[in-house]
Amino acid sequence: MEEQGAEDVPVVYLHEVKRQYTQGEKQLIILDGAKLALWPGQSVALVAPSGSGKSTLLHIAGLLESPDEGEVYVGGVPTSQLTDIERTQMRRTDIGFVYQSHRLLPEFTALENVMLPQMIRGLKRSETVKRASEILAYLGLGERIKHRPAELSGGEQQRVAIARAVANAPRALLADEPTGNLDPATADHVFNALMQLVKATRVAMLIATHNMELAGRMDRRVSIVAGKVVELD
Ligand code: ADP
Ligand code: MG
Q: Which residue ranges does UniProt annotate as crossing the membrane (predicted)?
């Protein structure tokens, strides 16, 4: 029997997602029937003003937060009925997340920071060393693996954070303004690293960014308008 191609199913699919926050007496409706499909090997820019719900959308797509209504499918599997353990498991294996600030552990080297998610997943130490070294070298950090985060430049820190996010070979890579703190040349370098990973691994990528030049180099651009995801251009 022929197996159904994984490429026929969105890696992540948000269906009619609603998310609201209570602020004092007010109900803030941030997402209201948002729909978005992320596909293997496709990079999507999420471009929208501050406060419009980009981080909320990324957290929901990354199973870090649950929607109030609607469903998040990962590889076609609805996630709302999963147990906490199952969700955590899925987040670890299927999703990589990169934040605006690197969030690396300061006491650990670059190599150890990239080994950790693999060790948590239960891989043998020797395997994690091998894989972490390979990914860091691939991202141009082969000479920096023994450095602690404080001994790295901003761009290097962010590339280690990307290496950590892809350490478990996720199907989706979600990045929340990953170049927001970097100067233009460094931002370009980090962005190129992300794009290179999409090409090489066919990971589905969603990047929230204010940088229109970078957004223009991605496969697809979306925004958030009145709580819904709209396609740009
Ligand atoms: P963006 O990333 O586009 O700047 P966010 O998703 O962070 O936007 O936030 C969207 C809106 O939701 C903002 O107005 C923010 O203040 C509000 N918000 C976000 N998280 C919470 C929360 N935990 N409690 C209350 N309001 C929140
Ligand atoms: Mg944000």
A: none
